[in-house]
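sry for the spam today, last one i promise. struct tokens for design, 419 residues
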């Protein structure tokens, strides 16, 4: 109520009080005056309450109108396709509230529809952002959409995903049992398997880009070459998709454990593969020459052509070779190179480290070690190989992928593969 309204109300009240049909003051005048004033006050309060009620009703009507508009827009959005099911080979079923339909050709997919591939069946789903989802046989998945982007819910089977680069603050999400994967634009494989105990396990293999995997209340970033394995309610377990990198991580931990136990110096472990003439070596990052922009270089004793590099957490690193010099680029890591301490190198055709005679006899010599050092060497031999003599303690001997694996705690220094 503004000032003029208050003044009008006051004048009205005074006029009402002094317009009483009385010629003189009577004993009950004071009582009647109080009642008149009270009556006017109550009337003004009712008028203000009516105005407030009107404002509240108008506000509620505006909110309701907005809710109806949003609901109408959501209904419109839900009726629009979220993608297209195409390249169907075999039996593919589409399930929604109307039941199960057989997809006999390309068709539009809408939110909350399920796609199920049968045995021997493949297909492809192209989402509206042009991301491609390729399910393997015996896969069940659902598609949905939220404000942050598309959602792929995988309950069974495996999918290969080629995600388009996402707009700012948006991402493609893959939801598996107990696991959520945020994709900004990359290629990866996701597989859900059920263990004999009934627990579902999700395995993510990243080929390019960067993703975030969350499980058991813990989130971790994956880089190309890394594999994440999660179970419902447990944090992600991350490793490399290259067996030798994982083996060297294990051997490095074993070397450090033995060194702490005996008070010796821990040398870097190595894998020598006699079958394909590859040498896998762990090199401390501090050994590399620092270049600009988180790029490091190392001069090898062998040609750097086709050398591959990995960080100690299993991620593949971009490399560039020139002569015997290999350059590794760590600039694309989320925290750059701050968390990298070691580089794993795969050096092909490093035949100078060992000798093969007549295709049967394998010789491998190591320089003697200084006192108080620990070196673990893993030798990958043909399965038919016979080990006649080994200098050092054999701590492992088993077969893997058609090879005889012999791990030796050698009384030797780490073989120098770099200058």
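last one done:
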């Amino acid at each position: 109520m503004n000032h003029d309204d208050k003044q009008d109300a006051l004048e009205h009240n005074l006029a009402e009080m002094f317009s009483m049909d009385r010629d003189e003051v009577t004993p009950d005048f004071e009582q009647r005056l109080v009642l008149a004033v009270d009556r006017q006050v109550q009337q003004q309060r009712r008028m203000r309450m009516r105005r407030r009620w009107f404002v509240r009703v108008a506000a509620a009507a505006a909110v309701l109108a907005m809710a109806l508009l949003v609901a109408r827009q959501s209904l419109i959005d839900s009726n629009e396709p979220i993608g297209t099911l195409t390249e169907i080979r075999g039996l593919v079923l589409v399930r929604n509230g109307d039941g199960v339909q057989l997809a006999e050709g390309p068709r539009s997919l809408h939110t909350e529809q399920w796609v199920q591939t049968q045995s021997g069946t493949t297909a492809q789903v192209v989402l509206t952002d042009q991301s491609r989802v390729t399910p393997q046989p015996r896969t069940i998945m659902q598609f949905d959409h939220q404000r942050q982007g598309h959602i792929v819910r995988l309950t069974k089977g495996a999918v290969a995903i080629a995600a388009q680069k996402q707009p700012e603050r948006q991402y493609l999400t893959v939801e598996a049992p107990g696991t959520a994967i945020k994709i900004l634009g990359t290629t990866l494989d996701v597989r859900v398997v059920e263990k004999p105990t009934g627990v579902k396990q999700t395995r993510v293999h990243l080929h390019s880009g960067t993703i975030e995997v969350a499980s058991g209340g813990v989130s971790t970033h994956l880089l190309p070459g890394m594999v994440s394995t999660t179970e419902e309610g447990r944090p992600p377990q991350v490793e490399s998709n290259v067996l030798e990198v994982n083996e060297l991580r294990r051997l490095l931990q074993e070397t450090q454990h033995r060194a702490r136990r005996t008070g010796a110096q821990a040398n870097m472990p190595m894998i020598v593969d006699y079958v394909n003439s590859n040498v896998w070596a762990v090199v401390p990052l501090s050994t590399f020459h620092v270049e600009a922009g988180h790029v490091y270089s190392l001069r090898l004793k062998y040609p750097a052509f086709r050398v591959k590099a990995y960080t100690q957490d299993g991620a593949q690193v971009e490399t560039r070779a020139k002569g015997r010099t290999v350059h590794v680029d760590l600039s694309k890591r989320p925290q750059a190179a701050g968390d990298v301490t070691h580089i794993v190198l795969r050096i092909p055709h490093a035949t100078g480290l060992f000798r093969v005679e007549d295709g049967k006899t394998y010789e491998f010599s190591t320089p003697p070690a200084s006192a108080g050092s620990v070196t673990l060497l893993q030798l990958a031999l043909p399965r038919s190989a016979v080990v006649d003599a080994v200098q050092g303690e054999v701590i492992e001997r088993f077969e893997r992928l058609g090879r005889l694996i012999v791990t030796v705690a050698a009384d030797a220094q780490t073989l120098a593969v770099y200058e």
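The first helix runs from residue 3 to 18. ok im logging off now
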